[in-house]
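seq/struct pair 1
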Amino acid sequence: MDLDYYIGEARPDMPGPLQGPMPIMRMFGVTSDGVSVMTHIHGFAPYFYVLAPINFDSKLCKQLLERLNKLILGELRNNSENISDAVLSIDLVEKQSLYGYQKLDKTRFIKITLCLPRLISIAARILTTTNLLGQSETKCFESNIEFEIRFMVDRSIVGCCWIELPAKSYKLRSPDQYESRCQVELDVAYDKLIAYEPDEKWSSIAPLRVLSFDIECAGRKGIFPEPEHDPIIQIANYVTRQGESEPFIRVIFCLKTCLPIVDHEVRCYDDEKKLLQAWADFVREVDPD
């Protein structure tokens, strides 16, 4: 499983705001049958916490939202993303700080949810350098956590764990909507994901396709190969599945001719450009993980 995010438009059929820019998580994985999947995960928004002043109550959340939103928008020079609601919500919550000894089990914090991850640093700076909360010092918490890590922690996802998308919880994309070379692409709300702990039942590894390749060049003696002067003369490839000891594909791409090699398919090409194009097509067809 691999994970990153990109900025896209909010969708009315997904959690979160109805319009405006939103981060969309992009998760890559493989099913138990070896099918590669790219999942667009919608509705998860970045947030951080601020230690609430003693006299702050839930009635002041709306006022703070409006004032902070105005200040953040003022910091955006060109606002190329056309952000109108930088702050999505402000809530008063009870949490426990991990810093030092705490007399109380719970402390009141202000949870500030924003539309984009990059706005967290702007919001935190505004809160710590102004008197917006009516106090001399404002402490921010969890404002430096990377957005991908935040998502994984909140959804109990760890690297290479198994994730289930319940039936009817996702929407398959048509091939003309694909943004990757995965075999399947789909859209799903972030709160529909089910992540399994790697216990006995879910400790297996997906049948990942692993491509190993070695490139040989017609190098000059004593000089490291340079693409402008030294052509690629051979690319040897092994493709294996996770859990299998022997490769199921052995292919060698050669410039000009080559003698037959036992248990290997040899493909020969007249010039380097054709060789590289054929190898690129091969990589796309194999779809290694």
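seq/struct pair 2
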Amino acid sequence: MISFAFVTSGKAYLISQTTLTNSIMRIKDSKEEVVEVNGTRAFISGNQGETYRLRMELQEGVEYVRRVFKKEMNTRNIANLFKNTIYDKIRTRMPYQVSGVFVGHDETGAMRLFHVDNYSAVNETHFVATNYGIYFLYGLADVFHKAEMEHEEAIEFINHALKALKERTAIDTRSWRLDVVKESLKVETQYIEI
């Protein structure tokens, strides 16, 4: 499923597709693709069984570190835990075919955005798009995305992106989930139908 995320000076935005349909066939319908792990929002896409397994492994890994080492994991640590899990499986006969987008705070309170691909490469960036959406969204990000965006500008950028995806993709892209992570660690989640 398509997702994209970006960070500004005070907020982070994670937009993910909730329903995947083509013509009259509903391929996937899930509002639980985004999971909260220790204050970090994670969108994991790929094969359904593998994404479920990796979400559970992430939550168990964070809980293990909390109990054994008495440490809280930040967004960078969680992205690296995900990367290590994928890397451990990469040389087996059945490597994971998943990728992840991680949005949250670091130890200084600054917003961070990480992308981990199915080859376990980690990338810290200010904008990321996944799956079929990358062909359309990076061009829009060049025009609209700024590091110092206000919330209204960010919503305008999201609206442009969703409109472009609806007009240009062969799959139905009407149902979306928007997670806005604020500096105060509050998260607003809303569902968008276009």
